[in-house]
Amino acid sequence: GIFATVRMLDLGVDFALGIGMDRTATPFGRYRPWMVLGAPILMLAVYMLFMAPPTVDSVYLIGWLLVMYLGTSILNLSHTAWASTLATTYDERSRVFGALTGVGVIGAVIALLVPVFLPRLAQWATMTVTPRSSGRRRRSGLPSSWASFTATALSSPAWVSSTTSNPFMRR
User: What are the DSSP E strand ranges found in 5-155?
Assistant: First the structure.
């Protein structure tokens, strides 16, 4: 019921956002301001949905789901449109979107595996360093840089098309 209602109300949003993005002209580019706008909208909506009061009603859910889908639409459309402008030829666009799709699948698989491995990761993160009889020391905690590197490197389509001839791409 509620999700179907929200998706029906959200039908025209992508069309309107696309028109708005096409008419945007800023010194920061056509799509970056939209990405900057969409991220806090999505973050606020997800926070409000996950931290909903116990007495939540359908109006609250529909309202915040609409805001969440608005933020998601802004980010998805701006990210995809930006990726399409990075590549000027058919082959480059194929490579960019193939990489984006591949990274998306890898991200979805990782997200699905988190609940499976979370208890083990939590146990590993709380381990203490104790000497072993062989003289080697055991690792303590999770590596701190892998998550930030993965999020940064895989969230931008620019890394896929570093050899593009697009004059608007900043390096």
Answer: none
| Stretch 114-124: mean pLDDT | 79
pLDDT, mean of residues 18-26: 91
Distance of CA 17 to the CA centre of its chain: 18
What is the structure's pLDDT at 155?
52
- Residue-wise over 33-42: b if at least 16 C-beta within 10 A, else e? ebbeebeebb
Mean pLDDT over 84-105 rounds to 89
Query: At which residue do the structure tokens 């146990």 appear?
Result: 123
41/107 Cα distance (integer angstroms): 22
Output Rg (C-alpha) for the chain, integer angstroms. Answer: 21
Inter-residue contact 41 to 67 (CB < 8 Å)? yes
Q: 66-70 contacts: CB < 8 A, separation 24 or more?
A: 66/6, 66/9, 66/10, 67/41, 68/42, 69/6, 69/7, 69/10, 69/13, 70/10, 70/13, 70/38, 70/41, 70/45
Over residues 50-92, the pLDDT tens digits come to 999 888 888 999 899 999 999 999 999 998 888 888 888 899 9
The residue type found at 70 is L
